[in-house]
């Protein structure tokens, strides 16, 4: 069975894969989406460290 990396490499060489890569690059360069990603990452970090939790009673 092919590894996940090999499957992704094959997908990247298809027209659909190239389209997905192009869209991902466009999204990554959009300032609004960068801010959304940053906020989501911060939420996950806060959750993992317990900073976002209300105090226990």
Task: Describe the model.
By secondary structure, the chain is mostly helical. The chain has helices spanning 4-12, 15-28, 31-49. The mean pLDDT is 88. Helix content is 74%, strand content 0%. The chain contains three helices and no strands. The chain is elongated.
**What is the general shape?**
elongated
Please report the number of helical segments: 3
The string of secondary-structure elements, in order, is HHH
| N→C terminal distance | 52 Å
- Over the alpha carbons, how many angstroms does the gyration radius reach? 18 Å
Helix content: over 70%
Q: Low-confidence parts, pLDDT < 50 over ≥5 residues?
A: none
Number of strands: 0
How would you classify the helix and strand content by structural class?
Answer: mainly alpha
Mean pLDDT, to the nearest integer, reads 88
What can be said about the biggest beta sheet? none
Strand content: under 5%
Key terms for this structure?
single chain, 57 residues, 3 helices, 74% helix, 0% strand
Layout of helices and strands:
Layout: H1 4-12, H2 15-28, H3 31-49
Give the structure's gist in a few sentences.
It is built from 3 helices and no strands.
């Amino acid at each position: 069975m092919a590894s996940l990396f090999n499957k992704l490499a094959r997908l990247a060489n298809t027209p659909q894969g190239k389209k997905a890569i192009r869209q991902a690059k466009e999204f990554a360069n959009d300032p609004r989406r960068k801010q959304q990603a940053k906020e989501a990452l911060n939420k996950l970090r806060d959750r993992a460290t317990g900073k976002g939790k209300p105090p226990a009673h």
